[in-house]
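Is this the right way to post structure tokens for a design question? Let me know if I should format differently. Anyway, here goes:
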């Protein structure tokens, strides 16, 4: 299931500046994932195509001429005294001093911003292996693809050949870097009076009976479904029918339904996800107090890959509010799946 958008990488040797790639963007490059959201804020995430590493390196940078890069290295092993080397070359003392001895499991053992981040990337971007020695225990992280990942981040943000580029540095002034796009502002949720107890019981029962053939045709393995109804506005309700569940994801059917018998309905329509995702599966929830509809879909049971998103209801339409995705299953917890869409609530 591919959701990748086409990306044109500029060659390393002196290509003219091209128009920035469309965003949101998601790209896998060897042992790295690069993701940039609708504001051209980018992350490069270590994610080995094969195998698992207890080391995880994330590199991030917002768009705009004044934005500085940052790096964060985490280790899922036991706390202790750490040393780092790149292709068996130890970090210089000034950079090694950034290591946090005794950091707990999952906590960053190294964090650098601005000039420190640039110095670390200068050591890593052309390397092959980042190795951590944790008092006798070793862990390795592949750097294969990091240079291309940094080049792509620079290209998306219009930094190629600037003094502040992460990979292909040049003499262009950083003031030539484009500003970040404006953050989309969502229309507000106007609020709604909740359904009565009679509506909350009667509407979903009526919709389940009327749509039974539809979701059985779509999912013949469906068991007895579960349904719930929520007020959308004074005339309509939202009905969520959980039709079946597998090991860690469930299937849902969602309808906009009139609150008066005979309860005419239509399938729910929402503003689409920017990367072509299906959405509204795995686990789906609507909060009628805030007008927020959300879903969370695991790629596998441990939850280190998948996608998630949310929409805000404005009284008539569902507006895309957020979207995250991590297609490669390589140890990234859901909170660290890269963001592909952001919007501001009023």
């Amino acid at each position: 299931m591919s959701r990748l958008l086409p990306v044109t990488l500029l060659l390393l040797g002196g290509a003219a500046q091209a128009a920035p790639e469309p965003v949101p963007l998601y790209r896998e490059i060897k042992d790295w994932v690069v993701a940039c959201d609708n504001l051209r804020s980018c992350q490069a995430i270590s994610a080995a195509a094969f195998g698992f590493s207890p080391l995880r390196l994330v590199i991030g940078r917002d768009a705009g001429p004044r934005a500085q890069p940052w790096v964060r290295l985490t280790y899922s092993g036991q706390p202790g005294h750490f040393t780092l080397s790149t292709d068996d070359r130890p970090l210089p003392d000034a950079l090694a001093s950034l290591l946090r001895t005794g950091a707990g499991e999952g906590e960053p053992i190294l964090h650098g911003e601005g000039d420190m981040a640039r110095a670390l990337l200068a050591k890593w971007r052309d390397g092959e292996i980042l190795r951590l020695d944790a008092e006798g225990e070793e862990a390795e992280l592949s750097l294969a693809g990091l240079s291309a990942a940094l080049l792509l981040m620079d290209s998306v943000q219009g930094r190629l050949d600037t003094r502040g580029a992460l990979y292909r540095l040049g003499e262009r002034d950083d003031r030539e870097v484009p500003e970040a796009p404006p953050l989309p502002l969502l229309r507000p949720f106007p609020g709604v009076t909740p359904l009565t107890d009679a509506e909350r019981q009667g509407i979903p029962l009526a919709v389940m009976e009327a749509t039974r053939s539809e979701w059985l045709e779509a999912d013949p393995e469906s068991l007895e479904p579960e349904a719930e109804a929520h007020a959308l506005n004074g005339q309509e309700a939202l009905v969520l029918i959980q039709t079946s569940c597998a090991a860690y994801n469930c299937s849902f059917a969602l309808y906009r339904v009139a609150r008066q018998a005979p309860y005419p309905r239509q399938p729910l329509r929402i503003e689409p996800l920017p990367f072509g995702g299906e959405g509204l599966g795995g686990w789906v929830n609507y909060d009628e107090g805030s007008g927020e509809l959300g879903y969370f879909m695991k790629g596998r049971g441990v939850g280190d890959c998948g996608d998630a998103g949310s929409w805000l209801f404005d009284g008539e339409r569902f507006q895309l509010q957020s979207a995250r995705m991590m297609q490669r299953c390589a140890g990234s917890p859901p909170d660290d799946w890269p963001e592909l869409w952001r919007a501001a609530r009023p």
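Format looks fine. Someone answered above. Worth noting: The first helix runs from residue 93 to 96. The first strand starts at residue 25 and ends at 29.
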